[in-house]
Design brief:
alpha/beta, 3-stranded parallel sheet
């Protein structure tokens, strides 16, 4: 489980300037509160970690929302203030619904599962 994975990360030998990178998808009102940030800091305690914050790219059929930029920045600030290296992934293409995760869901609503599978297998 998660505990075993994090314990393995704590034991993993890494070079002095290296860090283990964790990708954290932020979902509005699900895992983006100040307390969630502090909880993440506690989970990563003892790990030389870098956290990439990934605000959700909203897409049709996904019942979650993207947190505000202010909320994302506050979450990152809490991590940084507690010694966790953090970066916020900037999304490109969101304004035209072409960001990561949006294209497949858009095309999925226009095609049957069989058509999607056939398209994937022909690549």
């Amino acid at each position: 489980g998660l505990k075993e994975l994090l314990d393995a990360c704590r034991r993993f030998p890494i070079k002095r300037r290296e860090r283990i990178t964790f990708e954290y998808v932020l979902l509005k009102d699900v895992n983006d509160t100040d307390e969630d940030a502090r909880r993440l800091v506690r989970l990563l305690h003892g790990i030389r970690a870098k956290v990439n914050l990934l605000p959700l790219n909203e897409a049709a059929g996904i019942p979650y929302e993207r947190p505000s930029d202010a909320r994302v920045n506050r979450f990152g600030q809490i991590l940084a203030e507690r010694g966790v290296a953090v970066s916020v992934r900037k999304s490109r293409g969101r304004d035209i619904r072409a960001a990561c995760g949006q294209l497949i869901t858009e095309s999925a609503h226009q095609k049957s599962p069989g058509q999607l599978l056939a398209n994937l297998m022909s690549v």
